[in-house]
Here is the input.
Amino acid sequence: MAVTAAGTGLLAHFSALEDPRQSGKVLYPLPEILLVVLCGTLSGCDDFVEMALWGREHLSFLRSFEPFARGIASHDTLNDVVRALDPALFEDCFVSWINSLRGAAGAEEIAVPETIAIDGKTMRRSGSRRGAGPLHLVSAWACGQRLVLAQEAVTGKSNEITAIPRLLDQLVLKGALVTIDAMGCQRAIAEQIVEAEADYVLAIKGNQKSLYGSIQRAIAEGRAEDGFGLDMVRIEDADHGRNEVRRHFILHDVSTLNRRHAWPGLGAVGMVEAEVERDGKTTVTRRCFLCSRPMSAAEFAAVVRSHWQIENSLHWVLDVVFRDDHARVRKGYGARNMGLIKRIAVNLLKSATDKNSLKVRRKKASWSTGYLHSLIIGTA
Here is the structure.
């Protein structure tokens, strides 16, 4: 007897999705279409033509979840349904699933996640030929649990400021430490995080020259006074002919800065000074940060480094493993919904316990239906 996909832990959370088609004309039920697209994505398919072919070749496996009484829908039907799905409701279902996963990890682990990093990524070929720009998806990434928590769509990186508050509204932030790059360094965003009983580490660059200059001067004064009131840790890296020394400074006395800039919940300011030597040339760059949670320089260094997980463990994976920048889904909500399906696949692949890379896990899913089944039901 087939175990319906709606009864499995993953797809049960997507049962609230409404089928965008007229009910009397539906030949291929929505759960079957979602299952084909998800399994195809996990198994290395990069477009709907490949997914439909994969489904026909693995029909007996798919029927262990759903009836598939009429077989596999055509690639055009898969495309039409995915691009017509309500993306907001789809993303709500995704958040429901993620919250169930995080809850299963234990209340203590959930209450204080190591870091939630927020950053955006553009789907390069999702733009319309009629001039509409490519889709930009802002994601929240739990660094400790290595999970995509939510996504929010905007048109262009410059609109991240409007997307981040909506993304934060979807998350359980209490006790979390939220890291955002300079685009999200806004008073309203900092206030939203503090009101949610969370902390922030916000990067700041020349986009806020007065505040940026004040932080640099305050840390320079601390250095000139032999580190009075300043904590510092030095980290060295050397590889591929490049020598780098990073100095992480954290200053807890922010009374003067607060009087001048009145930043919500400000508890410390930090700076990373990176000195890089390559081919006999040395360059020095400095990045400044606002922190609501006082921390040591070593803790600050770890937080700054962990933020880049979202680049290395999510955005790089989407580009290299899932060929996200080559996807040409442009019509309707197709790009946004496929972006979410790929993030579901990333979470499932990262949850596997074998020691293979994600690229190899994806190939293994295409070779072994037993392994694919374990990914879907959460036992891999």
Notes: The chain is about 45% helix and 20% strand. The mean pLDDT is 87.
